[in-house]
């Protein structure tokens, strides 16, 4: 029994010795400089002091014998900064050193660490973090969905406090990563306190960006919070069940057909009744359409909203997959967008097409000076629906109530 215990103890001692030898051997393969990062001091809104100290213990001293360069590196976006980030050089040798970090952003969290380089490579101290001081307060305005497009966005900011140092210039800066600065792309939108609006153009389609407001005074540059947005993708065409292809247009956050519907069948190929004759139209009790030359077709309200029954089965409506009839609220959003920006419907590329309409008695009127479109929303009574129209000056989009057996154009809106 004593022999067995003695044997186990010897085995343990051998294994421990071997493990120590292995760890020591592995440690000795790393011959890069070994150092510590000293505390960050003298922090302002745009500068700070930091340094490094070499390890002089016997096991590390040889690694710090020939330091060819050294300094401090820092970043506001990377938690473990390297010499590929911002840095300040602090000479050579293995004595303690300090350096000044400059060009910092006010009220911002930074990560910092010392580094030293020898023929064996680059060694780093531990990472410290600190916040620069506040030199005022500025907010970033979040862009609304309707305030961005495929290559542009409208945003801005609000300078709330300048710490008694006049804001010389202000605007927004942006980039593809967080914490963009005025060293990146930027706008210049006046000076002083208060809100401001910025328009960014020349962006890439369907791309994510980060933007933040900035304001510069004699104290330095302060920044608002990061706001991330994505530009819209280019809307594709709309194709109905018969293969008719329609151009589309983005207006704010909405995508509309830029042409009037020409379909004569439902999505399940059911024929929509044709009623070109005035008397036939006046006698309608169900869905129908009529030809309207180069302006597309005119439809009564039932044709574009009713789920038609054929052979005992429910048939789909006429909107293709990914598209639908607009509601009154959809039209109101479009109307508000035009009013807010003081632009006309025709200037957006909507292409109104003044093809007139067809009255309840079948009479055609208004060609050349009127265009109207259905919404899916019923108005005050079951026989009246909400619609929109535009007249010959192509400026104002107006709301009205139309009898459901009237003939109007149709524009689908893309589903989100």
Structural key phrases:
single chain, 416 residues, mainly beta, Immunoglobulin-like, 3 domains, five-stranded antiparallel sheet, 5 helices, 31 strands
Description of the molecule:
The protein folds into 3 domains: 97 residues, Sandwich (Immunoglobulin-like); 94 residues, Immunoglobulin-like (Sandwich), CATH 2.60.40; 177 residues, no CATH class. It contains 5 helices and 31 strands. The N terminus is likely disordered. The longest helix has 27 residues. By secondary structure, it is mainly beta. It is 13% helix and 37% strand.
Mean pLDDT: 87
Number of extended strands? 31
Determine the structural class based on helices, strands and strand pairing. mainly beta
The largest β sheet comes out as: 5 strands, antiparallel
Q: Estimate nothing, just give the exact number of structural domains.
A: 3
Radius of gyration: 35 Å
Poorly predicted segments: 1-28
N-C termini distance: 80 Å
Please report which band the strand proportion falls in: under 5%, 5-15%, 15-25%, 25-35%, 35-45% or over 45%.
Answer: 35-45%
User: How many helix segments?
Assistant: 5
Share of residues in helices? 10-25%
Describe the global form: elongated
